[in-house]
């Protein structure tokens, strides 16, 4: 019987002097360091909430992906339907690029309108041009979300306008934002663009972080009657890039200030710590039926994490794997995952691989392992 096993690791020397806590008025929030993937803050990060205009990050990703794959070009023209004009255009009273009904707009202008101005008509025009309807496009959005690791988000339209069954999580939105930055660097810069002009209409980027001189890279703002104000933001400063998503704030001013405080804290209150060097043995895991009782596991490269400078909680690391691992095992085979906690927050997960070969044991050794598994397997079942 193979069960989920945990090997505890003591990380020596990684102790702080006093606990440091961060409080936010946001109902849900999630922040990571982009380089290491360290989770710096998490509060109700997997709660499903209405996406509002934050859904437009996913709309843009679908368009970026189509361009990168060669299916679309920036100078492709997209038709402005009456539906797009009425639902998201000048007559809608919502964020718009003022595209004229029955005109055609280049895809590059549509993308800039969506990323800079959060234009609803731009989103609908892209959706109809790529998939024929908002509904069809929303299915593509959800499929793409799953492909890039967004496990708990469902999209019903490209704008984020209220719709039953549509929801996102703060964790998923950070996953999406970091994916966009890493995969589409040429387009990612649009989010920090200060203004956008289309058809002689000048509109400023409304993201308040861009005016704060904190290294902000823009991204998206949202609002819903149910959950209040939300934001997805990023900063690049002091050689680091952080992504944050926050929801459930009471006003535009509170949203801006809470995001600024959290991002500043993320930059200043953490230091990089290398837990394991490249090639260093992370730990050993039990082997069943092999010519040795256990094997060393290692990560593909160095394992580093950002930890709070004054956090009193020690880092806790655990090797989690299905085991005991059955022989034979080839070096390089995926064995399990190194999970690192800072306090109660699961801050990092790193794949682990066999650092050595393990051959089949002698017949009598395998028989003894089998007897041992019968005697101890039930203990793991009830104590892990």
Strand order of the largest sheet: 1-15-17-18-13-12-16
Order of helices and strands: EEEHEHEHHHHHEEEEEHEEEEEEEEH
What is the name of the CATH superfamily of the largest domain? DD-peptidase/beta-lactamase superfamily
Distance between termini? 14 Å
**Uncertain parts:** 12-20, 366-384
Question: How many DSSP H or I helices?
Answer: 9
Got a strand count? 18
| CATH fold label of the largest domain | Beta-lactamase
Q: Provide mean pLDDT, rounded.
A: 89
Evaluate the radius of gyration: 25 Å
Largest sheet: 7 strands, mixed
Keywords: Carboxypeptidase, Cell shape, Cell wall biogenesis/degradation, Hydrolase, Peptidoglycan synthesis, Protease, Signal
EC number: 3.4.16.4
Function: Removes C-terminal D-alanyl residues from sugar-peptide cell wall precursors.
Catalytic activity: Preferential cleavage: (Ac)2-L-Lys-D-Ala-|-D-Ala. Also transpeptidation of peptidyl-alanyl moieties that are N-acyl substituents of D-alanine
What does this 3D model show about the protein?
- The chain has nine helices and 18 strands.
- The chain is α+β, with helices and mostly antiparallel strands and 384 residues long.
- It has two domains: 3-16 and 274-383, Peptidoglycan synthesis regulatory factor (PBP3), Domain 2; 28-268, Beta-lactamase (3-Layer(aba) Sandwich), CATH 3.40.710.
- The strands form five sheets. The protein has a seven-stranded mixed sheet with strand order 1-15-17-18-13-12-16, with helices on one face. A five-stranded antiparallel sheet has the order 3-2-10-9-8, with helices on both faces. It has a two-stranded antiparallel sheet with strand order 4-5.
- It is globular, with a radius of gyration of 25 Å.
- The active site is at 53 (acyl-ester intermediate), 56 (proton acceptor), 118.
- It comes from Nitratireductor indicus C115.
């Amino acid at each position: 019987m193979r069960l989920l096993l945990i090997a505890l690791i003591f990380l020596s020397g990684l102790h702080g002097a006093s606990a440091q806590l961060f409080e936010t008025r946001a109902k849900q929030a999630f922040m990571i360091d982009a380089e290491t993937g360290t989770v710096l803050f998490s509060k109700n990060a997997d709660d499903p909430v209405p996406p509002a205009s934050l859904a437009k990050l996913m709309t843009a990703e679908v368009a970026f992906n189509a361009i990168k794959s060669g299916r679309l070009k920036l100078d492709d023209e997209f038709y402005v339907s009456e539906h797009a004009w009425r639902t998201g255009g000048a007559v809608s009273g919502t964020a718009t690029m003022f595209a004229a009904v029955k005109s055609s707009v280049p895809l590059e202008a549509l993308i800039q309108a969506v990323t800079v101005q959060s234009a609803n008509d731009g989103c609908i025009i892209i959706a109809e041009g790529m998939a024929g309807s908002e509904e069809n496009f929303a299915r593509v959005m959800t499929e793409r979300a799953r492909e890039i690791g967004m496990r708990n988000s469902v999209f019903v339209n490209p704008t984020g306008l209220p719709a039953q069954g549509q929801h996102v999580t703060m964790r998923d939105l950070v996953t999406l934002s970091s994916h966009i930055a890493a995969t589409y660097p040429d387009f990612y810069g649009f989010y920090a663009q200060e203004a956008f002009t289309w058809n002689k209409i000048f509109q400023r980027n409304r993201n308040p972080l861009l005016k704060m001189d904190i290294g902000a890279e823009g991204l998206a703002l949202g609002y819903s009657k149910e959950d209040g104000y939300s934001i997805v933001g990023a900063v690049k400063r002091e050689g680091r890039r952080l992504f944050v998503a926050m929801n459930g704030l009471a006003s535009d001013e509170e949203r801006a200030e809470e995001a600024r405080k959290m991002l500043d804290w993320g930059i200043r209150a953490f230091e990089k710590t290398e837990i394991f060097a490249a090639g260093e043995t992370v730990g050993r895991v039990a082997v069943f039926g092999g010519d040795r009782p256990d094997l060393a596991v290692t990560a593909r490269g160095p394992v580093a994490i950002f930890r709070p400078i004054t956090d009193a909680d020690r880092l806790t690391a655990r090797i989690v794997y299905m085991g005991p691992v059955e022989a034979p095992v080839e070096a390089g085979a995926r064995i399990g995952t190194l999970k690192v906690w800072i306090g109660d927050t699961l801050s990092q997960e790193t794949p682990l691989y066999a650092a050595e070969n393990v051959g089949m044991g002698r017949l009598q050794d395998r028989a003894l392992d089998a007897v041992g598994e019968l005697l101890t397997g039930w203990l793991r079942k009830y104590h892990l």
